[in-house]
Amino acid sequence: MANQYKFSFGPWNIHCGADPFGPVVRDELSFDEKLTFYRKLGFEGVQFHDDDAVPDLNELTPQQVANRAKAVKKQLEDHGLEAEFVAPRLWEDPRTIDGAYTANDPQHREYALERSRRTIDIANALETDLVVLWLAREGTYIRESKDSKKAVDLLVQAINAMLDYEPHMRFAIEPKPNEPMDQAFIPTTGHAIGLAYLCNDPSRVGVNIESAHAILAGLDPSDEMGYALAHNKLWTVHLNDQNGLKFDEDKTFGSVDIRRAFNQVRILETYNYGQNGEYVGLDVKAMRTQKSGVSSKHLINSRRIFLRLVDLVRSLDEQHTQDLIKQRDYEELDFVILNHLMGG
After folding, report:
1. Single pTM value for the model
2. Does 49 participate in catalysis according to the annotation?
3. Is 320 a catalytic residue?
């Protein structure tokens, strides 16, 4: 266990602090200004939504989209960075109010597919082979409004169309049980992997597991990661933390439950996550009350906490823990872990 980890985050993780109940509290930074932070903070990879790379892409031709994405690739190279993945933003257009790939209107479904094709074009221009699919509005507020079996069929059709469009691209589904929808069709890692096996090329469909999304589903993120690792389908992660079953908080990794964070790091470390180039991705938001000038500490601290937990994983006496498991002395095992986390 001697992994060398590399880290990524998305430009949306440096933000101005607006929320549904109030205005901005910090100055907005340009995309290029945000890129200057990456190396300074110890990050190598950039996560993209399609319109992070190419704003207003709905107004552009496919060739214009590709050309602008190539210009962004040059920006990344100038900063010593690379794109980790690109994700289609399919939840902010009027045509996706009722869903994207599962919308009841076939014209809206076609819009979602065309937008996804442009996302793949952007990924090609940025020289990444990974597209993340957060199925944000693929669900319902009222169950009778959609047929859940048909919805799964539509999702498979959409992913198959993307697989056919670019034969070398991989697609990582990012499951979430709710928000913005009341109920999502693909709420967990198991659902996402099951969906993968319905597609024409399951080898190119995997998952992106976000800590907070697993917690919102009432699940332990490390168990979700273990399930995906068993299928060789954990292609990226979004590490953060979550204070209970409420809205998606995207708190600093480990800030709520350090033991839960420890177990996420432990399973990634144990099974050599990153050996195939996978990133440790963060999806964390600064506290709304954080002032300008120190509003990137959530990123610095999440990375520091991850690396400190790597040290704790590597220094844990695994032989002792295995002996306790054989003796079925789980109370002592419980203490050993807690004592280790407290520096004992």
Report:
1. 0.97
2. yes
3. no
